[in-house]
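Researcher: Can you fold this with zinc ion in place?
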Amino acid sequence: MILSIESSCDDSSIAITDIKTKKLIYHKKISQELEHSVYGGVVPELAARLHVEALPKILVECQEYFPKLKAIAVTNAPGLSVTLMEGVTMAKALSLSFNIPLIAVNHLKGHIYSLFIEKEEVFPSTILLVSGGHTQIIEANSLSDMKIIASTIDDSFGESFDKVSKMMGLGYPGGPIVQENGIKGNENRFDFPVPLRQSPKIEFSYSGLKNAVRLQIEKLGDKEINEQDKYDVCASFEKTAVAHIMQKVKKLFKKKIPLNFAIVGGASANIRLRTSIEELCNKNKTKLFLSELKYCSDNAAMIGRVAIEQYKQKDFISIEDIDIQTRIKERSLPL
Ligand code: KG4
Ligand code: ZN
């Protein structure tokens, strides 16, 4: 079995995965959403301190599996440096004391492998990754052959929901909150501009849309705006944010219809996005893969699923060499 640790942002999570059967034997996640909600976003130092409390609490529940462990896996990039450090430090200590190999897992690959938890891999696949930190389209042929073919030039899809929510004092994380409020709103009340509409390039941008929403809220009277205004801003913003993704994904389909398409990452829980992609895939006879809602946001089960493949390839790292990386600079995975 492999014990996997995830602490790249505001979720402390540990999973135990069976290498042979790919079964998820144990999985627990402690989210810090409530603690960060008052600040309208993740406070890295607070997140790190909460990981220090939560990770050992989860670890003691896994004690019965310790004798069966063959490796320790941990997310080492990308993420917040102070929070990644907590998971990596625990993983190093466990690897050293059990005298078993250490596996460094890329968080984005984790999101991709959330599709394959307790399942076989499906490749080749075109993957839309939408999270709080990333908005990318990845061409994936195997774990070691993945290429980022489109990404955001500024903010991410998920982050724009967080910011719009914060602007109206609605709480964190913004994704589910904006979605929920938007259901009661009129999506046609505000005509926000679809980003990069005229550009032939397949890339994303959310800073302009965020700004347009900010200006609209200011016009309405900032924090004084009434409930219906908030619902209408949420609905109109969500419609535009999804329209932007859909416009670019359609462009991609026009170039070449993918055999398999998938949406992963915390923001892939967005219903409007899921439904729109579903329609597009149905129309083009593309097979669509979605991770289960409980595995969309950060979790250690997806890290464990990647770790199984890395274990088979003996892709280990020494405790001296494991490093944390906050960002991925290259346009290809792995780092
Ligand atoms: O993957 P994830 O858990 O963490 C990162 O790796 O960033 O994604 C969290 C992000 C947050 O920005 C959150 O607001 C967004 O995903 N999110 C959503 C929805 N649910 C979560 N965004 C839009 N619609 C949703 N339903
Ligand atoms: Zn994530």
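Model: Folded with zinc ion in place. Confidence is low (pLDDT under 50) at residues 329-335.
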